[in-house]
Amino acid sequence: NAGVTQTPKFQVLKTGQSMTLQCAQDMNHEYMSWYRQDPGMGLRLIHYSVGAGITDQGEVPNGYNVSRSTTEDFPLRLLSAAPSQTSVYFCASSYSVSLTSYNEQFFGPGTRLTVL
Amino acid sequence: AQTVTQSQPEMSVQEAETVTLSCTYDTSESNYYLFWYKQPPSRQMILVIRQEAYKQQNATENRFSVNFQKAAKSFSLKISDSQLGDTAMYFCAFSSTNAGKSTFGDGTTLTVKP
User: Fold this and answer.
1) CB proximity list for A62: less than 8 A, separation 6 or greater
2) Which residues from chain A sit within 8 angstroms of residue B88, using beta carbons?
3) Which of A64, B20, B21, B106 has its CA 20 to 30 A from that of A8?
4) Rounded CA gap, B92 and B8, in Å?
5) Do the Cβ atoms of B103 and B2 come closer than 8 Å?
6) Is residue B55 classed exposed, middle or buried when 0-12, 13-18 and 19+ CB atoms within 10 A define those classes?
7) A16 CA: distance to closest CA in chain B (Å)
8) pLDDT tens digits for B52-61?
């Protein structure tokens, strides 16, 4: 299993440009999430999905768009990049959870994005 | 909304000694999960240990153990026999029954000195 993969690893954009960060998992996980990590801070949730066709906003959704057409893929779109979106982006996935199940999140390697 | 607080931005420990990282959280839920993740310079997030809130027994994983105090909403990580490879940033995280909605603290940078 490749686990959670993210592309690209690094990206530089100019203000106003758009792009898509790719995320894929091969573990048949229902849940997938996108986080951003700013310097010296923890991860903050951008968007998440509990299954194909279902997405919802997290703590910091503005400026980002997601869709989930398949179980495996969960791309994150930056609509019009701004310097405030300079960050490291992590994708994560996990099984759905019941009260007696363990729900570890598996993380991708991250994408370092710089917006000039 | 849940919050997670790590009050120690940086800590250091001598190799082979024991160190404890602190974490407190706030929630109104009765069933939830708590995690400690390690993030080395490679940026990869690595699960260190987890605790289910409905379990009273503290979790242990080799040299890593937690002190879970549910009433106090405290979840500290103890690292015994510290090794140079333990040098990393450590994040405490809270997850409700929906695994896609984890809340993270701001992290503690741990340095193990030879």
Assistant:
1) none
2) none
3) B106
4) 12
5) yes
6) exposed
7) 27
8) 888 889 999 9
